[in-house]
């Protein structure tokens, strides 16, 4: 859908919803009856973290559902949800291309918008020289947006979301603060597990489907080469694949893949190099398993990294 069509449809639906709403704007702190806060998040990691903080005090919407966050575009029904939300939380740094057109309109209506990465110190990315850039709009503003995959930065994300919730719903600030401390302890335990497991490994290099693990690699001391760029829309050039074949000869044993359109390139690379394939989930489409949550998948990822890097069992 072209840009002007998105803006037109969004403006139309906001007008439609506005006509149905009372002209008097009621804030959460002004309500006399018990009402749950409504938070719309752009994708699963933010929905999961926010839900742990909000608990029974709010309703959380995961806007993109199980759709790849790089490919998701809001439907008319999603636009209505955005307009009715007390708080809209997105990752930022270009991860949600649709936000460039929609958020300015929401801000004009005095909606509370939280862009997580605007509050974090980000890793600047150099423009790849050899990727086939068919989708130049997915430039991620020159910064790596995948901060949620770093257990330490994830604790900062908890703090950022908690502060916004306390600002718009101050009567429940103690409840939010306590819940935030609980999930931060889980992230601290996850960080400890990653440190111990990845502290003594035979190798320090891996190949991944796309360039989503830069923060994780920097945090725990390994290097991640990627088949695609920062977006799953990117496709590798023949030059990139040739370079990865050369890297494979230096001792890399595995290709770590996600369930996306890059898988076919990973399979080709695996066939040509003999490297084994293992699953690695960025959580950009959710857990893809109803029995597992964010922490379950992060622990699964840790076991994948342990195998790929040849790490010794922690005692």
Topology record:
Blueprint (H helix, E strand, L loop, with lengths): L2 H18 L16 E5 L2 H11 L3 E5 L13 H9 L2 E4 L8 H10 L4 E3 L15 E2 L18 H18 L4 H25 L7 E6 L3 H7 L2 E6 L6 E2 L1 H11 L5 E4 L5 H11 L2 E4 L14 H16 L6
Parallel strand pairs: 1-2, 1-3, 3-4, 6-7, 6-9, 9-10
Antiparallel strand pairs: 5-8
Quick structural summary:
The chain has 315 residues and is α/β, with parallel strands linked by helices. The protein is 43% helix and 13% strand.
Could you describe the 3D structure shown?
The structure is a single chain. The chain has 315 residues and is of the alpha/beta class. The model is unreliable at 15-33 and 128-140 (pLDDT under 50). The strands form three sheets. Strands 2-1-3-4 form a four-stranded parallel beta sheet, with helices on both faces. The longest helix is centred in the middle third of the chain and has 25 residues, at 173-197. The chain has helices spanning 3-20, 44-54, 76-84, 99-108, 151-168, 173-197, 214-220, 238-248, 263-273, 294-309, and strands at 37-41, 58-62, 87-90, 113-115, 131-132, 205-210, 223-228, 235-236, 254-257, 276-279. The protein folds into two domains: 37-120 and 142-197, Nitrogenase molybdenum iron protein domain (Rossmann fold, 3-Layer(aba) Sandwich); 201-309, 3-Layer(aba) Sandwich (Rossmann fold), CATH 3.40.50. 43% of the residues lie in helices and 13% in strands.
């Amino acid at each position: 859908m072209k840009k002007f069509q998105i803006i037109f449809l969004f403006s139309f639906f906001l007008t439609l919803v506005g006509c149905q709403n009372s002209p008097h704007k009621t804030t959460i702190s002004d309500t006399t009856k018990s009402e749950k806060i409504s938070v719309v998040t752009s994708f699963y990691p933010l929905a999961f973290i926010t839900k742990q903080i909000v608990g029974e005090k709010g309703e959380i919407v995961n806007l993109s559902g199980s759709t790849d966050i790089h490919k998701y575009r809001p439907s008319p029904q999603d636009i209505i949800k955005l307009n009715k939300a007390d708080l809209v939380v997105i990752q930022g740094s270009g991860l949600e291309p649709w936000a460039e057109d929609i958020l300015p309109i929401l801000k004009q209506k005095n909606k509370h918008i939280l862009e997580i990465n605007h509050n974090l110190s980000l890793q600047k990315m150099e423009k790849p020289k050899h990727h086939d850039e068919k989708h130049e709009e997915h430039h991620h503003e020159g910064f790596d947006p995948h901060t949620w995959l770093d257990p330490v930065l994830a604790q900062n994300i908890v703090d950022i979301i908690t502060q916004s919730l306390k600002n718009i719903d101050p009567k429940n600030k103690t409840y939010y603060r306590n819940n935030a401390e609980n999930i931060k302890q889980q992230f601290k335990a996850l960080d400890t597990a990653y440190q111990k497991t990845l502290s003594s490994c035979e190798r320090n290099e891996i190949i991944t489907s796309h360039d989503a693990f830069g923060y994780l690699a920097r945090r725990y001391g390994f290097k991640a080469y990627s088949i695609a760029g920062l977006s799953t829309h990117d496709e590798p050039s023949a030059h990139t694949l040739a370079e990865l074949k050369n890297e494979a000869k230096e001792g890399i044993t595995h290709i770590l893949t996600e369930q996306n359109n890059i898988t076919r390139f990973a399979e080709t690379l695996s066939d040509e190099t003999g490297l084994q394939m293992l699953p690695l989930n960025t959580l950009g489409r959710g857990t893809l398993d109803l029995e597992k949550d964010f922490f379950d998948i992060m622990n699964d990822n840790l076991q994948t990294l342990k195998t790929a890097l040849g790490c010794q069992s922690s005692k």
